[in-house]
């Protein structure tokens, strides 16, 4: 009887060839690696193409549906800020030049600072800081916040129209974005803040041409472009202001320009001045 005997684990032709030829085995392994890398590369390229396709479909969906304004809005309305930003409802958010939006806002309102941030369907505008005064230093003018931080610089005082003009104690350095550097690093700033808060509480800011706080015990301010009120120290302010008001009422019309000195409550004086420049000079 003839019986056929078969190998239960016959080798493939490649294996057989590989077993007999080591260089053939090396070539087969290298080919397998190349095929694997090629498959990975094809999957990666396909994923990128798919992602780009999805982005092209979805990006136009991210459009401005709302413009949100928050922060301190004193002296400006939400709509005025929106108009100044140049952002339009329906505009695509992806690709929007936020730096240009910020530049437009700061150019329109140099006395305020802003942040602009996007969401998928809105643009948020926040007023971060607000100038409360401006000062002259060297050949330029600088706006300041309540912490005496410099917010903006201009070569014209007109850029800061509507702000309180302030004359500070001697300073040695000014850098936009940083507090002014006072010559006396240990200076008491409390009396300056007291005057700023007083004007705000009495709504006098719009009537004051100059607040002179360059000397702590010789504080004064020019009111309505016609009268310098000399307060001296910031003590007894309520009494001093009341007395100054009575003296002005009593002398109403007697001089175009005058200095009312109430620094000494026991010896207050009224002195006519010849010009507005003399009044501002102190």
Q: How many DSSP-defined strands?
A: 14
Which descriptor suits the 3D outline? Answer: elongated
Mean pLDDT: 84
Approximate strand percentage:
25-35%
Distance between the termini: 136 Å
**Helix content range:** 25-40%
- Tell me the Rg in angstroms: 38 Å
Q: How many helices in DSSP terms?
A: 7
Structural class, by secondary structure, is alpha/beta
Neighbour order of strands in the largest sheet: 6-5-4-7-10-11-12-13-14
Structure description:
This protein has 282 residues and is of the alpha/beta class. It contains 7 helices and 14 strands. The strands form 3 sheets. A 9-stranded mixed beta sheet has the order 6-5-4-7-10-11-12-13-14. It has a 3-stranded mixed beta sheet with strand order 1-3-2. The chain has a two-stranded antiparallel sheet with strand order 8-9. Strand 13 and strand 14 form a beta hairpin. The chain is elongated. About 2% of the residues have low confidence.
Short description:
The protein is α/β, with parallel strands linked by helices. It is 34% helix and 26% strand.
Fold blueprint:
Layout: H1 13-20, H2 22-58, E1 66-71, H3 78-85, H4 98-108, E2 112-119, E3 122-130, E4 133-137, E5 140-144, E6 150-154, E7 164-167, E8 171-173, E9 181-182, H5 190-202, E10 208-212, E11 219-223, E12 227-232, H6 237-250, E13 257-261, E14 269-273, H7 276-281
Parallel strand pairs: 1-3, 4-7, 7-10, 12-13
Antiparallel strand pairs: 2-3, 4-5, 5-6, 8-9, 10-11, 11-12, 13-14
Helix pairs in contact: 1-2
């Amino acid at each position: 009887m003839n019986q056929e005997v078969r190998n239960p684990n016959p080798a493939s032709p490649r294996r057989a060839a590989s077993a007999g030829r080591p260089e053939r085995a090396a070539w087969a392994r290298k080919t397998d690696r190349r095929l694997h890398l090629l498959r990975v590369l094809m999957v990666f390229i396909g994923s990128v193409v798919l992602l780009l396709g999805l982005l092209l479909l979805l990006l136009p969906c991210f459009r401005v549906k709302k413009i949100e304004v928050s922060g301190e809005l004193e002296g400006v309305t939400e709509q005025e800020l929106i108009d100044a930003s140049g952002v339009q409802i329906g505009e695509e958010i992806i690709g929007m030049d936020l730096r240009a939006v910020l530049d437009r806002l700061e150019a329109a309102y140099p006395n305020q600072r802003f942040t602009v941030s996007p969401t998928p369907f809105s643009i948020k505008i926040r007023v971060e800081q607000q100038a409360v005064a401006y000062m002259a230093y060297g050949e330029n003018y600088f706006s300041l916040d309540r912490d005496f931080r410099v917010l903006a610089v201009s070569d014209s005082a007109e850029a800061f129209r509507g702000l309180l003009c302030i004359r500070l104690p001697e300073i040695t350095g000014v850098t936009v974005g940083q507090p002014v550097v006072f010559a006396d690093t240990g200076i008491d700033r409390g009396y300056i803040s007291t005057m700023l808060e007083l004007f705000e509480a009495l709504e006098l800011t719009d009537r004051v041409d100059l607040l002179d706080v360059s000397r702590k015990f010789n504080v004064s301010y020019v009111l309505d472009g016609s009268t310098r009120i000399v307060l001296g120290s910031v003590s007894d302010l309520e009494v001093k202001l009341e007395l100054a008001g009575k003296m002005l009422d009593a002398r109403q019309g007697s001089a175009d320009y005058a200095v009312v000195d109430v620094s000494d409550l026991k010896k207050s004086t009224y002195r006519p001045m010849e010009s507005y420049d003399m009044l501002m000079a102190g």
